Prior knowledge:
- By secondary structure, the protein is mostly helical.
- The chain folds into 2 domains: 11-70, no CATH class; 85-272, no CATH class.
- The chain has 9 helices and no strands.
- The protein has helices at 4-36, 42-53, 55-79, 85-109, 115-137, 149-157, 163-207, 215-243, 247-274.
- Helix 8 (215-243) runs antiparallel to helix 9.
- The longest helix has 45 residues, at 163-207.
- The N and C termini lie far apart (179 Å).
Amino acid sequence: MCIALPRVAMLLSELAIIYLATAAPFGVSRFLNQNAQGSRSLQTFAKSVAAALAWPLTTLKFLFKNAKPRAGTSKTTDEGGAPDEQRIEGVKRATVNAVLAVEDLLVSACGLKGDAERHALFAARASVERYAGLALACAGLSVDAAPSERELELCRIAGRAGDDLLVAGRCVHRRNVTRLLAHRERARAELVHALADAGELAHKLCSASRPFHSTEQTGGEAARQISEALLRAFSRAIELLSLFDDRAAVVGVARLLDAEGARLRRLEAQGAAATPVRPKEGAGQCTTQAVHTAFATRRLPTTTSTGG
């Protein structure tokens, strides 16, 4: 009995050491988080000690706290509130490829020789990628949201603490969100203007008197193919803008789509009018081209005609 008591005491002391060693990181983490938020008082130290001593409960609280944002994020994604990054990336790639198809048709039909012509098409592709990236970055932003740790870092280095630190962090967060939204608005305008410039360039090259690679393309077939490619590019751009519910940009690109559709109909009408109409075989009336009296012979004299 006397030998068992020291062993039990030693076992309890070892368990206490292990428990406190495990609790130390929880207490230090709680203290550093409170200190980062500007709370420096005896109450903060007491809360850190309590979190360390009750580290099993702190662990469960931490797990439940991280599980709630994940569940909310997945629910928002399923309901369609948050943008689907994979779908946005696919539509963006399709839009860029549609603009590349227009460029390939222009190269094969008209030939792009100037740097300004190539830059206009490159600007259209770059504007699509720039707008998609900025719109995706601005999708989950809110001016009234709490500042992040990175936004609080400079204010903390400047010596701010407590409520003053939170106010400064909110000001920094509001400035960052405003800048991102301004960049997105500028990218939206650049996207619409770049697509319009690409369409005007295609029309200019098609109507210009420069040598084509074949006589068939000169007749209007290349112009119709380029117009159809522009329609596909504008349609893809509208699909991309619709994913972000950007109605102002959708209206701008929709006008380009309507104008290009009207131009394609005019080209098709001109092609149909220029095509000669061949009569169907056997549909016309068969007429004799020769004169009927050409093969007539002289009347032979008779006794009645000569009087006897």
